[in-house]
Amino acid sequence: MSKIHPAIQYTVLRLALFAGVLGVLWLLGARGLLALGLAALVSGLLSFTLLAKQRSAMSESLVRRVQRVKESIDRSAAAEDEAVDALEAARARKPNERK
C-alpha cells in the first residue's frame, strides 16, 4: 500500500473538516452564504490545531522538494559554466583567423 502524499492528505482532511462543520451548521439552521462563511472560518480555526501534524508534514515535504529542485538547478548551472569555460579556453588557444 502506497503512502498518501502529505499535501493530498492535508487537503482531504481540510475538506472533510469543512464539510463536517458545514453539516453541523446546516443542522443548526444556518443556510446559504452564512453557512459557507461560518464553515470556512470555524474549520480554518479548527484545522490550525487539529491538523498541525499534517500541516507540518506537508511543509517538510515541500521544503525537501524545493531543496531538490535548487540542487538540480545548481548542478545544471555548474555544468553550463564548465562548458562555457572550456569553450572560451579552446577559443583562446586558437590563433585569430580573422583578417
From TrEMBL:
Transmembrane feature ranges: 12-28, 34-52
Top-level taxon of the source organism: Bacteria
Keywords: Membrane, Transmembrane, Transmembrane helix
Pfam families: DUF4229
UniProt cross-references to InterPro entries, sorted A to Z: DUF4229
Protein name in UniProt: DUF4229 domain-containing protein
Organism: Carbonactinospora thermoautotrophica
